[in-house]
Amino acid sequence: METNGEVEELDEGLYSRQLYVLGTEGMRRMATADILVSGLGGLGVEVAKNIILAGVRSVTLHDPDPVSWSDLSSHFFAGSDDIGHGKAEVSRHKLAELNNHVSVHVLNKPKITSEDIRKFTVVVFTQGSHETCLEIGKVCHDLGVKFVAAATSGVFGKVFCDFGAEFVVSDPTGEDPPSVMIQQIEKKPYADAFSQPEFLVTDFTKFDRPSQIHLCYAALSDYAQKHKGAYPGTWNQSDAQEFIQCVRNLNASLKDTGAFVSELDEHLCSLFAYTSNGQCCPVQAVIGGFAAQEALKACTGKFKPLMQWSYFDAIECLPSSVSVAAEKCNKELVVGEGDAAPRGSRYDGQIAIFGHQFQEKLNRLKYFMVGAGAIGCELLKNFALMGVGASPSGKVTVTDMDSIERSNLNRQFLFRPWDISKMKSTVAAAAVKRMNPE
Predict the structure, then answer these.
(1) Which of 43, 255, 340, 398 is most exposed, with minimal Cβ within 10 Å?
(2) What are the boundaries of each domain within the chain?
(3) Closest listed residue to residue 292, CA positions, set 54, 109, 127
């Protein structure tokens, strides 16, 4: 860690497990990194949480937008009392508690400028339009600042990386190096990478999906521009048809580029439109973890960065009659527009995807979970935000016979220094009850 320009001794008790992965040199590089996270919705707070736990020098939060009811289904550091207050300010105190070696600041500005960007090692952008990403991505590329863009829309998500024209990976695999261990990777800026995309395929049963979702995300910005920033209505079929036309128009304009798709999957596009207003915390946990890991690669030079786009979808989680192929889809949508309408509930972001009836089923579940370690903490967080077992007839029970140690604090984010020596299950249960009092 760095204090007053001098690097203080590495806290090996806290980072003992992480040192096995990154090594002392990687940790020291990370301890001199300053990261800007723009967008503090559910996705942004997930990214910030992971980066702060890892131990960078500073994290600056940027998001003047107020917390809304729909944020509460995915923002684990915001509650009903925070509605109407700026997301960055709401998040700062609880994020700062995660690691006292990391300075956490708020950038109180409506818009980020190039002068702001040049102060940082990495910029992680988790909100804003396609056009804003083009603008911020170009500034970062020109200034040599590493840029990570991430987004989620319902059950869809994306991550993009640009670590500049010259980025050196000092340890590409984590294994013993051959005779030549330095690898230089040149990356395209956001605008060039959009029209000539390279996709990391993570699910080979969905090999054609990335190119389709690539268009959907850009078309979503086109749709929002025509509707004063509004996305298609939840499970609104006429809005979905208008969105599909935006995708068609965009695809036609890209005919001579590598982003052109010869055959659009219009059923997939409609599912994207139906759920684009939704907030799904498990999807944000996946994308947030991925984006944070890329930011840490940018800081440390450890492991190969993403080349350059990765897309994710979980449409199999949607009701079966709307997630299957178009030719097999029932004419009646299982999730009706009325069933997905907001109710002034902390679960509105999730109801927009799965409907109110589905939410009631989640609330009645009874789960028994063994283990409150790193994965257990993440599962409990997701259960709490989703409302699993939140009704009087439901419950979640967790057991873990282990007690909290200092090295746990680097990965098990429900625990704090004052919890050391207490039982994991007791502390974890109390922490998630504070996230969701229901």
Answers:
(1) 255
(2) 15-201+280-313, 365-437
(3) 54
Say yes or no: do domains 15-201+280-313 and 365-437 share a fold.
no
* Residue spans of the chain under pLDDT 70: 1-8, 166-186, 320-333
Tell me how far apart the alpha carbons of residues 250 and 261 are, in angstroms, rounded to a whole number.
10
**In degrees, to the nearest 5, what angle opens at C-alpha 73 toward C-alphas 60 and 46?**
30
Distance of CA 432 to the CA centre of its chain: 20
User: Strands 199-200, 309-313: parallel, antiparallel or unpaired by DSSP?
Assistant: parallel
- Give which of 205, 200, 197 is closest to 314, Cα–Cα: 205
Cα separation, 222 vs 229, whole angstroms: 9
Alpha-carbon torsion, ordered 192, 246, 44, 111, to 10 deg: 70
Tokens coding 378: 């993440």
**Residue 424, C-beta contacts closer than 8 angstroms, at least 6 positions apart:** 372, 373, 376, 400, 402, 403, 404, 408, 412, 415
Please, which residues have CB within 8 angstroms of residue 44's CB and are 6 or more apart in sequence?
37, 38, 61, 63, 87, 124, 126, 127, 288
The closest of 118, 105, 21 to 57, measured between CA atoms, is: 105
In the Cβ-directed half-sphere of 196, how many Cα atoms lie within 13 Å?
Answer: 4
CATH topology of domain 365-437: FAD/NAD(P)-binding domain (3.50.50)
Pairing of strands 122-125, 103-106: unpaired
Q: Are 171 and 27 in contact (CB under 8 A)?
A: no
Give me the residue label for tokens 């229901």: 438
Dihedral sign, Cα of residue 9, residue 12, residue 18, residue 20? positive
Cβ-contact 268, 262 below 8 angstroms: no
Coil, strand or helix at 43: helix
**What's the Cα-to-Cα distance from 130 to each of 208, 233, 305, rounded to whole Å?**
22, 19, 22
Question: To 10 degrees, what angle do helices 281-300 and 42-54 make?
Answer: 40
Both structure tokens of 82: 């925070």
Q: How far apart are CA 244 and CA 237, in angstroms?
A: 10
